């Protein structure tokens, strides 16, 4: 005790010299350690502390920590070890007292996890981070601060690896290194023990590949990992490390993307996915990650077994074809093979793949100009249809869901589409929208007129009551004042929702029956789909009674009365209802019958209260077989036994959900649309209800049960109705067929209707999609490029004439040459007095006639004679920015040398010359490559007009794969005229040179044109080049290969391609690009206008 | 003129001697029979317009038989039918006649028109638009009040016998600027329009002609109706009754309806794969496996 006090007193003053609190720290320290140490040791301990404080300028800070930490440390260590510890600290303090202090401070906690032998290693790892500058010191101090916590989850040598990473980061950014180190403890604590080492290993790989991603990894990595199945995280990290080591900076983005993708997959699949990816990794690490990224998409279309088949194809590319790039593209889904395989395996059917076929099918069935579109389009039009998932029709077009994946077989899903289409077409074919008010059906008498009167009386009564209550009764409209017959029909009923639902059930029943009668082949699938739908119905016994009644009718209409459940006590209702429904299944039933049947069902339904019947489930029974027969007469309402009815509060009635294949049915809207259409076409239906007034429309829309109020913007009913109305009107004005085209679907849009009346219109761009050839993968990238075709802008008229004037001689010469060109096609002309061949028949006849002595005519020669030439040629001009270059430039160099001599002695002469030249240039700007292309175009036009070949002139440019611009200067079908001349004047350099898609689009245009000889002439100033047209900016291979492939495609399609370039270095890549395709490097650029027509003559004569 | 009759299974006879002795099946759709009979009596040439396989040729055959039976005069042994299929190399001498070499001599031989004119036959020029325009002009004098056929090479004029009638057929579906009838030709004929018969009648025709049962015939007629809806929207021509009869014949002999329709309708009608698929779907909708 005294010793401690002595020592405290002994050192107090010395220590106070370092810091005011130090003696206190000492005192507390010595008190803490004295139980563990003997006197000698205690003295050594104290001296060591003082020595530490003395060892360097600020080492007293370390000493303070020494004193504070000692009690705890002394309990863990032997005295010798304690001395070693302080030696370490002293050593550290020699480099930085701050670091040393942190070391000392962290020790007690670290010792919880470290053996005493590890202290040395632990301190050295911290020391390693210290480079003498304050940032590094702070970092190493941080190390000692956080590593005790890290030790809870990581062994020391792993921490060593983390230090490596941090150390590496310090070369780039201390800030980054600090953040990473700081965030490490919670990260590793949260990770499962088995995942910690792999996490670290991947961190190391990321740091090596792309140091900046390390922070991202530390920030986002743990969360990304969380979504992966716990047992698989280590494997995934291993995979990621291996991939990163090979792909470099793409490593982390690939990791992040694929982790997200895996998260989208069911957890049970993770193991297989990662295992498969690991299988790919040795052959192509990138492919492994691409596979993971694509997995959710593929899984959404394939079953696990199919997916396996799909992946095996990719493995085959990788392993057997040794094509890593190909496999990568395959797994990235950027190869035609990948898509084809997917399509072949997938049970899912996309509407786009069968759209045209279904359109013709629907047209055949209905005999109407039907178009088939995706439901997405209908919703966009905002005319009252809101669900995208169900099929429907608005009278002129059939809307189908964008894809079907109901059944596991492709064939079945296709049949689903067919049933969809047939049912929707059935509505048109069997007249669902042709309802006429008060017209009798084949099986039912008319009751609607009566109902209308009754309803009007009831309403009048209501209004009177309201008036007497002091409220303002709504003005009642006349029957003739309604917009459509359907509306008038619905007006006969108080509950429009109910009658709407019933009418839908009845009419769909009728249409299904008609379809089954008329189309024996589809019956089976219709039935299968009906059964499928019947099995999907919601439980009926929990529904309110009226609702359950309608639901049961619907089940019966699906041909599954066995699924009906209804309280036996109320059987008479059901019996009557089912009987009535049967009426419309009879042959000859029309929409009039449906309306009447729905009306009588309505009577039945309103007499059933919409309350929940608290019956146990087993008391809801299926109907007896004999209950289902055609009703002898229409049931009336209110005949049920009211005493049997359960009591309770009426719930709001909701119609049962429509079966998918039947889809939305909105007869009222359709009738309205049709009427609007007729009105806009100027055809009045029948004089009775002439033009629709706005009020009429508003009333219809407000009342219609086919549009629910919730679909309007809240509170602003009037204005949204108005907008809706204008949508409807707009819609009625556009024929259904055209809508599709405006959207530039695939290759179908014509785009050839040239420019006679487009003056005022904004530029129209038709988009086309083309594959691009990836030579590495050895496959096409499907729909990779988007070509926007547009009419070229028009310049002024003078350019063309000016060019003609300037090149008068050349123009005359080429014209003459062209006029001499031999025609390619001949027709045999008979009965000539002279010719190349003798026509034997005619010759015999001549001899016979001569013998017979009857007016012989010696016309027995025949000759092959020319008829119209049958050549179509497309000129494709490079409008890339590089064509902006002046061609004078090169020559100027030489000129200067020559001229330099001349003016050497006389500066005045030189300035004179210079002034002259400037004046000339101002008058006539220097020629650029594009100018020569333009001049050539003028000459070609002149020449071709002389021989009458069909020709088109197109320019191309653009930027990136989505934005390939295709300028039509003169289309193949277009007549030559002033607009073409103006467009030639406006040819301007724009941007890049993505040749492939431009060539493909030209092929497409030539394909559609009917000619015997087809030629494509591409005029360019250099190699193909574009953003993303190759692996990186400098790569040229890709572009060259794609262009070559496009040229080959041209040849395959019977087109003769020919390349002309003014690039003197052209020979090297052209040789590769053209193989056996003709090309020419025009050495003297200026000879292009002269050369082009000559070349054409050769090509067309071949 | 010798009529050679062989024993080995075939008959050889002069065109004008040929008579249709059994009634060719023809189901009248409207008043075309009556019209034709009147035209025949009144010596008014007839133009039969209509798509291929709609029964034009059958109608003429039927009328030939019918007129022979009912109003044919006994002396001329009724009304023979001489059919000429027109093609673009058909010359005037092909129609009127020509000299032939016989040893050192020549012999005149009548062409089909001359024979018809002489025999008082119905001369049926099938697909007249295919013939050269100068050939069609040849028939002009025959088609008006003159009823004369000039035989240029012999310097003769043939006056048509009483029973002679010129009938032409023409398919407006092929109409193009190149192959249209000249108005001067067109306006020498009354025109009877043919179209594919309504569903029920067509079913009856298919049933009778092919021997397929009535139900299947009805389905075929329905199919035809649907396929014809595609005319101008992918198909140049609708499916003809003739084709349906062929399909019916296949079905009657045991080929499954789907297969028969595929070969007889889908593949026969078009080479466009997309259209083929659409029609095939219509077929599978109507006929079950």
Element layout with pairings:
The complex is a heterodimer of chains A (1102) and B (289).
Chain A: H1 2-16, H2 22-33, H3 39-55, H4 59-76, H5 79-95, H6 97-111, H7 119-129, H8 134-151, H9 156-170, H10 174-190, H11 193-209, H12 213-226, H13 233-247, H14 251-263, H15 270-280, H16 285-301, H17 304-319, H18 324-331, H19 336-345, E1 349-350, H20 351-366, E2 371-374, H21 375-380, E3 392-393, E4 397-400, E5 403-404, H22 410-429, H23 448-468, H24 485-491, H25 496-518, H26 520-535, H27 545-557, E6 566-567, H28 571-583, H29 591-606, E7 620-621, H30 667-681, H31 694-703, H32 717-733, H33 736-742, E8 766-774, E9 779-791, H34 798-806, H35 808-819, E10 826-832, E11 837-838, H36 840-852, E12 861-866, E13 871-878, H37 888-903, H38 907-923, H39 929-947, E14 950-958, E15 964-970, H40 978-985, H41 995-1008, E16 1013-1020, H42 1037-1052, E17 1055-1061, H43 1066-1074, E18 1078-1081, H44 1088-1101
Parallel strand pairs in A: 2-4, 9-15, 13-14, 13-16, 16-17, 17-18
Antiparallel strand pairs in A: 1-5, 3-4, 6-7, 8-9, 10-12, 11-12, 14-15
Helix pairs in contact in A: 1-2, 1-3, 2-4, 3-4, 3-5, 4-5, 4-6, 5-6, 5-7, 6-7, 6-8, 7-8, 7-9, 8-9, 8-10, 9-10, 9-11, 10-12, 11-12, 11-13, 12-14, 13-14, 13-16, 14-16, 15-16, 16-18, 17-18, 17-19, 20-22, 22-25, 22-26, 25-26, 25-27, 25-29, 27-28, 28-29, 30-32, 35-39, 37-38, 39-44, ...
Chain B: H1 32-41, E1 46-49, H2 56-70, E2 81-85, H3 92-96, E3 97-102, E4 105-110, H4 112-119, E5 122-126, H5 133-138, H6 140-143, E6 148-151, E7 156-159, E8 165-170, H7 183-186, E9 190-193, H8 199-210, H9 214-228, H10 241-252, H11 257-269, H12 273-286
Parallel strand pairs in B: 1-8, 1-9, 2-5, 5-8
Antiparallel strand pairs in B: 3-4, 6-7
Helix pairs in contact in B: 8-9, 8-10, 9-10, 9-12, 10-11, 11-12
């Amino acid at each position: 005790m005294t010793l401690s006090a002595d020592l405290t007193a002994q050192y107090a003053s010395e220590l106070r010299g370092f810091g005011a609190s130090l003696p206190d720290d000492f005192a507390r320290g010595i008190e803490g350690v004295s139980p563990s140490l003997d006197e000698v040791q205690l003295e050594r301990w104290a001296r060591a502390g003082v020595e530490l404080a003395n060892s360097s300028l600020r080492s007293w800070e370390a000493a303070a920590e020494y004193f504070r930490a000692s009690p705890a440390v002394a309990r863990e260590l032997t005295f010798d070890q304690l001395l070693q510890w302080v030696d370490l600290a002293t050593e550290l303090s020699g480099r930085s007292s701050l670091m040393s202090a942190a070391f000392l401070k962290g020790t007690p906690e670290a010792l919880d996890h470290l053996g005493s032998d590890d202290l040395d290693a632990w301190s050295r790892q911290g020391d390693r981070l210290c480079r003498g500058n304050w940032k590094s010191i702070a970092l190493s101090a941080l190390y000692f601060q956080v590593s005790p916590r890290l030790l809870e989850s990581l062994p020391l040598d792993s921490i060593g690896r983390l230090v490596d990473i941090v150390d590496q980061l310090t070369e780039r950014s201390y800030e980054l290194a600090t953040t990473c180190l700081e965030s490490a403890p919670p990260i590793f604590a949260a990770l499962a023990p088995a995942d910690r080492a792999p996490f670290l290993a991947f961190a190391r790989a990321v740091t090596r590949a792309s140091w900046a991603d390390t922070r991202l990894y530390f920030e986002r990595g743990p969360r990304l990992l969380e979504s992966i199945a716990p047992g698989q995280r280590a494997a995934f990290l291993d995979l990621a490390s291996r991939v990163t080591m090979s792909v470099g900076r793409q490593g982390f983005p690939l990791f992040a993307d694929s982790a997200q993708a895996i998260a989208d997959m069911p957890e049970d699949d993770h193991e297989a996915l990662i295992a498969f990816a690991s299988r790919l990794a040795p052959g192509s690490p990138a492919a492994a990650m691409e596979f993971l990224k694509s997995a959710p998409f593929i899984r959404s279309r394939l079953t696990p077994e199919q997916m396996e088949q799909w992946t095996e194809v990719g493995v085959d590319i990788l392993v057997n074809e040794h094509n890593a790039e190909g496999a990568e593209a395959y797994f990235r889904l950027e190869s035609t093979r990948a898509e084809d395989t997917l399509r072949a395996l997938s049970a899912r059917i996309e509407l786009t793949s069968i759209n045209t076929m279904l359109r013709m099918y629907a047209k055949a069935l209905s005999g109407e100009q039907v178009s088939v579109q995706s439901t997405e389009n209908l919703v966009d039009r905002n005319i009252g249809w809101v669900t995208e998932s169900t099929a429907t029709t608005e009278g002129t077009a059939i809307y189908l869901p964008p894809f079907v994946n109901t059944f596991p077989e492709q064939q079945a899903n296709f049949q689903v589409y067919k049933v969809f289409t047939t049912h929707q077409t059935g509505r048109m074919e069997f007249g669902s929208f042709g309802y006429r008010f008060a017209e009798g059906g084949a099986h039912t008498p008319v009751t609607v007129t009566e109902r209308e009167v009754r309803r009007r009386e009831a309403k009048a009564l209501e209004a009177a009551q309201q008036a007497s209550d002091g409220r303002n009764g709504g003005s009642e409209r006349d029957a003739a004042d309604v917009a459509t017959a359907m509306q008038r029909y619905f007006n006969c009923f108080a509950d429009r929702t109910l009658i709407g639902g019933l009418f839908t059930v009845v009419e769909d029943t009728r249409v299904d029956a008609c379809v089954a009668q008329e189309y024996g082949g589809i019956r089976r699938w219709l039935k299968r789909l009906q059964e499928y739908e019947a099995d999907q119905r919601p439980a009926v016994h929990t529904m309110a009674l009226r609702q359950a009644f309608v639901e049961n009718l619907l089940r019966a209409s699906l041909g599954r009365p066995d699924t009906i459940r209804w309280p036996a006590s109320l059987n008479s209702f059901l019996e009557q209802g089912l009987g009535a429904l049967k009426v419309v299944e009879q042959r000859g039933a029309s929409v009039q019958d449906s309306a009447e049947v729905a009306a009588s069902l309505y009577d039945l339904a309103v007499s059933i209260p919409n309350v929940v019947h608290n019956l146990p489930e087993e008391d809801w029974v299926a109907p007896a077989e004999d209950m289902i027969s055609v009703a002898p007469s229409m049931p009336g309402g209110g005949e049920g036994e009211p005493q049997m009815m359960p009591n309770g509060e009426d719930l709001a009635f909701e119609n049962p959900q429509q079966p998918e294949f039947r889809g939305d049915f909105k007869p009222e809207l359709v009738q309205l649309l049709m009427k609007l259409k007729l009105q806009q076409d100027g055809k009045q239906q029948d004089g009775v209800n002439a033009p629709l007034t706005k009020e009429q429309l508003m009333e219809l829309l407000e009342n219609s049960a086919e549009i629910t109020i919730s679909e309007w913007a809240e509170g602003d009913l009037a204005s949204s109705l108005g907008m809706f109305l204008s949508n409807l009107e707009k819609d009625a004005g556009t024929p259904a067929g055209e809508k599709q085209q405006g959207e530039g679907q695939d290759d179908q849009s014509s785009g050839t209707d040239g420019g006679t009346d487009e003056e005022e219109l904004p530029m129209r761009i038709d988009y086309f999609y083309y594959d691009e050839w990836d030579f590495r993968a050895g496959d096409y990238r499907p729909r990779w490029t988007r070509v926007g075709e547009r009419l070229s802008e028009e310049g002024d008229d003078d350019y063309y004439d000016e060019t003609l004037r300037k090149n008068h001689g050349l123009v005359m010469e080429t014209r003459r040459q062209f006029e001499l060109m031999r025609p390619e096609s001949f027709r045999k002309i008979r009965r000539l007095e002279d010719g190349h061949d003798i026509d034997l028949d005619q010759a015999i006849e001549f001899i016979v006639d001569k013998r017979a002595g009857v007016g012989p005519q010696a016309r027995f020669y025949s000759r092959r004679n020319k008829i119209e030439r049958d050549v179509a040629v497309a000129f494709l001009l490079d409008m890339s920015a590089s064509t902006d270059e002046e061609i004078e430039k090169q020559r100027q160099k030489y000129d200067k040398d020559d001229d330099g001599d001349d003016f050497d002695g006389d500066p005045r002469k030189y300035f004179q010359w210079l002034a002259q030249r400037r004046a000339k240039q101002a008058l006539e700007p220097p020629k650029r490559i594009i100018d020569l292309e333009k001049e050539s175009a003028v000459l070609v036009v002149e020449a071709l007009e002389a021989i009458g070949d069909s020709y088109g002139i197109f320019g191309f440019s653009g930027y990136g794969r989505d934005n390939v611009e295709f300028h039509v200067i003169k289309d193949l079908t277009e007549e030559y005229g002033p607009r073409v001349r103006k467009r030639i004047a406006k040819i301007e350099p724009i941007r890049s040179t993505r040749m492939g898609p431009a060539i493909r689009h030209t092929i497409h245009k030539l394909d559609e044109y009917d000619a015997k000889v087809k030629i494509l002439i591409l005029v360019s100033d250099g190699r193909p080049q574009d953003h993303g047209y190759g692996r990186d900016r400098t790569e040229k291979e890709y572009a060259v290969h794609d262009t070559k492939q496009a040229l080959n495609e041209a040849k395959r399609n019977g087109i003769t391609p020919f390349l002309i370039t003014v690039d003197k270095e052209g020979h090297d890549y052209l040789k590769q690009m053209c193989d056996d395709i003709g090309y020419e490097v025009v050495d003297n650029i200026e000879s292009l206008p002269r050369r082009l027509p000559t070349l054409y003559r050769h090509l067309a004569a071949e | 003129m010798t009529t050679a009759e062989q024993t080995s299974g075939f008959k050889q006879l002069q065109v004008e001697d040929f008579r249709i002795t059994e009634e060719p099946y023809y189901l009248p759709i409207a008043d075309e029979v009556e019209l034709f009979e009147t035209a025949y009596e009144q010596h008014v040439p007839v133009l039969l317009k209509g798509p291929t396989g709609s029964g034009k040729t059958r109608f003429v055959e039927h009328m030939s038989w019918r007129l022979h039976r009912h109003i044919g005069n006994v002396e001329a042994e009724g009304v023979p039918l001489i059919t000429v299929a027109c093609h673009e190399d058909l010359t005037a001498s092909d129609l009127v006649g020509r000299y032939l070499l016989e040893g050192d001599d020549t012999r005149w031989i009548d062409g089909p028109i001359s024979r018809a004119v002489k025999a008082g036959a119905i001369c049926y020029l099938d697909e007249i638009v295919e013939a050269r325009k100068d050939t069609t002009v040849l028939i002009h004098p025959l088609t008006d009040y003159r009823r004369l056929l000039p035989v240029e090479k012999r310097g003769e004029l043939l006056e048509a016998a009483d029973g002679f009638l010129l009938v032409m057929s023409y398919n407006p579906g092929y109409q193009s600027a190149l192959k249209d009838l000249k108005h001067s030709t067109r306006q020498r004929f009354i025109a009877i329009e043919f179209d594919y018969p309504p569903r029920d009648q067509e079913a009856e025709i298919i049933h009778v002609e092919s021997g397929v049962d009535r139900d299947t015939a009805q389905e075929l007629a329905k199919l035809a109706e649907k396929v014809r809806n595609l005319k101008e929207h992918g198909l140049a021509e609708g499916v003809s009754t003739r084709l349906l009869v062929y399909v019916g014949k296949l079905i009657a002999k045991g080929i499954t309806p789907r297969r028969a329709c595929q070969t007889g309708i889908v593949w026969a009608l078009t080479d466009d794969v997309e259209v083929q698929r659409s029609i095939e779907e219509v077929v599978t909708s109507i006929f079950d496996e």
